[in-house]
Write a structure and sequence with these properties.
Elements: E1 3-7, E2 10-13, E3 18-25, E4 34-39, E5 46-51, E6 57-59, E7 67-72, E8 77-82, E9 91-99, E10 103-106, E11 110-115
Length: 116
């Protein structure tokens, strides 16, 4: 049974930093591409960043240079380091994995709120 558990969200002032974690069970992240998405109130869920099984990273334009996705295969955990946060980064952040032959799995989300 695949399970993803996010943590690390909170309230921070603009310009501040947060690090989100996504702890996986039921899969080994070293063999899967992992991604972060976010959803602001009234908006659709948008892709933020991906790290492939091989460690290649990609980002949506609005977070390039500010966010860093990384992983620790030994801890089976993916991270999202968020720096220089802006009010428009306020959203619920979700971790996602696509398991070949099985489907997409999402975590429960963690709230990030950035005050101006």
């Amino acid at each position: 049974q695949v399970q993803l558990v996010e943590s690390g969200g909170g309230l921070v002032q603009a310009g501040g930093s947060l690090r989100l974690s996504c702890a996986a069970s039921g899969i080994l992240i070293r063999f899967n591409d992992m991604a972060w998405y976010r959803q602001a109130p009234g908006n659709q869920r948008d892709w933020v960043a991906t790290i492939t099984s091989g460690g290649t990273t990609t980002y949506t334009d609005s977070v390039k240079g500010r966010f860093t996705i990384s992983k620790d295969n030994a801890k089976n955990t993916v991270y999202l380091q968020m720096n220089s946060l802006k009010p428009e980064d306020t959203a619920v952040y979700y971790c996602k994995v696509l398991v070949s032959g099985s489907g997409h799995y999402w975590g429960q989300g963690t709230q990030v709120s950035v005050s101006s």
